[in-house]
Design the sequence.
């Protein structure tokens, strides 16, 4: 799993039938120090994430393991919205205070 921040939405009116009904979001990947890596991906949203939220996403064949993406042609899926992250006993991210 990877950490990222939702930075936008992708709208596509014409697409393969297997992609119908899937919400697609732009996610900027974050590194271990919470800095943007510069990499932006399109991910299917399986958890109703919102703009600006920190999320966990999966890539490759793991992206096709959620109920929303099972056997669909996707490379990335948002599978969790992050509430709190701690490291070495300290809170490094708290959705309630960092939003």
Sequence:
């Amino acid at each position: 799993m990877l950490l990222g921040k939702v930075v936008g939405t992708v709208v596509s009116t014409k697409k393969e039938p297997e992609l119908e009904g899937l919400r697609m979001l732009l996610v900027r990947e974050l590194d271990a120090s919470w800095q943007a890596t510069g990499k932006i991906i399109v991910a299917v949203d399986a958890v109703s994430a919102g703009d600006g939220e920190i999320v966990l996403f999966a890539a490759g064949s793991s992206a096709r393991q959620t109920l929303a993406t099972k056997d669909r042609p996707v490379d990335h899926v948002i599978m969790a919205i992050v509430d709190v992250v701690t490291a070495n006993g300290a809170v490094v991210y708290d959705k309630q205070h960092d939003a």
Notes: The chain has one helix and seven strands. The domain at 2-98 is CATH 2.40.50.220 (OB fold (Dihydrolipoamide Acetyltransferase, E2P)). The chain has one domain: 2-98. The mean pLDDT is 91.
